[in-house]
Amino acid sequence: MRVSLRHLAGRVWWYPHDEDHDNVQGGVAVIADDAGSVVVDAGNSPRAARRVQAAMEAAGLPPARHLVYTHHHWDHVWGACAWPDVEVVGHRAGARILAAEVRRPWSHQYLRGEVEANPRLGPSFRARAWAMPSWEGFAIIPPQIEFDDALTLPCGVELRHVGGRHAEDSTVVAVPDSGVLLLGDCFYPPPFHLREPDDGYAVDLIERLLDEAELGRYE
To answer: Where are the domains of the chain?
Structure first.
């Protein structure tokens, strides 16, 4: 079944996540702008990125100009190499991590070897293999535009670093004119291979963001 973009509010659209938890594909947001849309997260593979692009075209949205990473995890950035003519934006800590990820010899053989060395990587690395039927043309793309605390794009989209245990570079994306705050995975527990039994959602972070929203920080 073909998935289409869903209109959230104002100029914000949403390409939903895959409901199959074994197919680790998070949602992708599109913020429409006449000068070129802002895409929030790249999809978990070039194939996923092309599906989002087809949905954007079908919805009549402008092509992407900026691609924003909410954090560096693979299911949010591995589709970046399939987004043409975009400026990739991300937090400086994530840029450093992705620069190291570029040097890994990504392949199904490499994924199998990593799981053999550390079985706790199994769920993540098997999902990566599932997402990547071919590695031809694949490349990890670190951000070309980096920021530390906050950055406002020319179209009025606001990026703010919040960190947290899920990923040190976690960023929230606010679209004040549409009353939308995109959280990414910032309140999730650490990835499975790093998770401890008592790790859970970052309720304190959610409460803080809700308090700021009520005070008008994100409208």
So the answer is: 6-214
